[in-house]
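User: Some background: our group keeps a shared notebook of sequences we're curious about, and every so often someone picks one and asks for a predicted structure to add to the entry. Today it's my turn. The entry only has the sequence so far, pasted here. Could you supply the structure so I can complete it?
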Amino acid sequence: MTTHTGTATQALSTPHPAEVSRTYEEGIVAGLIGAAVIAAWFFVLDALHGRPLYTPTVLGTAIFGASREANPIEPALMFTWVHVLVFALLGGIAARLLALAERDPNYGFGILLLFVVFEFGFLIVAMFLCRGRAGHAHVAVHPRRQSLRGSGDGAYFRRHHPNLLIRP
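Assistant: Of course. Here's the predicted structure to add to the notebook entry:
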């Protein structure tokens, strides 16, 4: 897109389509890394308690209303599919925001604050939904889970954005 100012023509700072495609590809990969880290975390926790796939089965049953007794794998697969899609979407949004901050470092602090508020809001909603369900609280609010997820996709983003600056 161009604008005419008098006799000069200026190109607006619109990213090249290949750059936009690369940004979203990067976001999807980061989302998949985050989803895999979380899935592995809960698989290990459930296996240590002697019930592999318990967490995705319970969450799939809660979301889709499927029966755990008939086929326990079906709700786990349904939840895993949604889990991967949501993480890929969030990774795409994060990659787009990081690309914006990379082009203009003044946006960086606002984006960082947005991520902090988003995480806090997620924890509050999860604690509210899990109130009175002590067995399910570890699924939503476990601090190590959040740290692991942030470390996995954060390391990926850091590798792809080594020169990212954040200005207040």
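Suggested note for the entry: The two ends are 30 Å apart (CA to CA). The chain is about 75% helix and 5% strand.
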